[in-house]
Each structure stands twice: as C-alpha cells, then as structure tokens.
C-alpha cells in the first residue's frame, strides 16, 4: 500500500474553519487532500474540485492555492447529489431553499469561505460538471473528484476532467471503497480505470481518499 502523505502543517485557523464547515470529509482525509493540493499547486496551475457542497474540502484547496499563488476552482450545481435529497441518508434540511423547494448549498458555501478568509483564492462555478468540463480550456495541476457517486456521474467527471490534468499533476478521488460493504462502487471503478490506463501511479491512500500522479497522457 502507498505510504501516508505528509505535507506542510495546515494553519490552525484553516483547520478550525475546515472542522467547523458542513460536509463529509474526515480530518485525516482532509490532511491528505491538503498535502496533495500543496504538492500539485507547485506546478503553478489551477486546482479543480468537482463537488463543492458547503465548502468543507474547498477550504483546504484554497489554502494550498493561496500559498502557491494559484486559484482553486470548484464546480457544483448546488442542488445536491442523489443521497442528499429529502428522505435519503445524507439529507440536511437546513440547506433547502424553502421558496423553490430544492436544495441550495451555495449560500452556505459562500458563508463558509468568507468566514475562512479564503474567498479571493477560489473561483466557484455553478453548473453541471460535464457541461463545465466541456468549456474548460486550460491545463490543471490537480483534479479532485467528489461529485455525484453514481456510475453515470463519476464516469462523466473522470472523462470530462482528466483530459485537462497536466502530466505530473495529481488526480484525487474521494469515497473509494474496494469492498462494496463499505460504500458505493462508482468512485472505486474510476480509480481502477485510472490505474489500468497506465497513465497514473498511486502515491497515497488515506482511508477512502486516493491520490494518483499523472505519468502519461491516456485516460
Ligand atoms: C459528496 S458532496 C461534496 C462534498 C464536499 N467535497 C465536502 O468535502 O464536503 C457532492 C456534491 O456534488 C454535487 N454534484 C453531484 N453531481 C454533480 C454534477 N453532475 N455536477 C455538479 N455537481 C454535482 C452535489 O450537488 C454535492 O454538493
């Protein structure tokens, strides 16, 4: 198994903002994400996240981006994934827009980022990930996939964004569960696809968070 990553210390106020934010990422995976983002940001290219939700993981990308003088770009339609809808396991009624009767995580995300003092380092794109990927025009230093967890969404995220990842850049995938008893298999399937493509080497494993380095041009 790949070794656990070590990165620079996360500033205490950034860690506090991460821990206070709504979201799904545990601290150990957050530290691994921050280490990967710090390493990738040294390429001088933007860091891209699919799946903003309320900004918990975005805070860590933003801090790494700030240090390196690059931008973190985060993409979400802000209407929630399947498992976050009313009646499902991860639903949070406090992020429903009562006027339109749909989830809207954008206001909470904006508040989170403002309170963390990181607004200037993040470009938030509101839209469907495949549509945004189609109009995206430049190379990326990091692609972090944490959007929809169905095969349809995870595959579209992989096929939409990985072609933009620069050689030497990092692909990070969240919620990779080799054992179906632990969780859905779509992120695991794109993780396996990346490894089988021959275009990636795995450089760290932290619970369900996997970090792979792009070593070739395929997907
Ligand atoms: C698991 S949450 C992201 C969690 C976040 N990274 C964190 O650390 O708290 C997944 C997010 O992906 C978004 N999402 C799902 N499918 C999407 C798609 N096709 N395009 C854009 N966003 C999508 C949902 O709206 C949801 O906010």
Automatic annotation (TrEMBL):
It holds the Pfam family Methyltransf_24. Keywords: Methyltransferase, Transferase. GO terms for cellular component: plasma membrane. GO terms for molecular function: methyltransferase activity. It comes from the Bacteria. SUPFAM superfamilies: S-adenosyl-L-methionine-dependent methyltransferases (SSF53335). GO terms for biological process: DIM/DIP cell wall layer assembly; methylation. InterPro entries: SAM-dependent_MTases_sf. PANTHER family: RHAMNOSYL O-METHYLTRANSFERASE. This is Class I SAM-dependent methyltransferase. The lineage of its organism: Bacteria, Bacillati, Actinomycetota, Actinomycetes, Kitasatosporales.
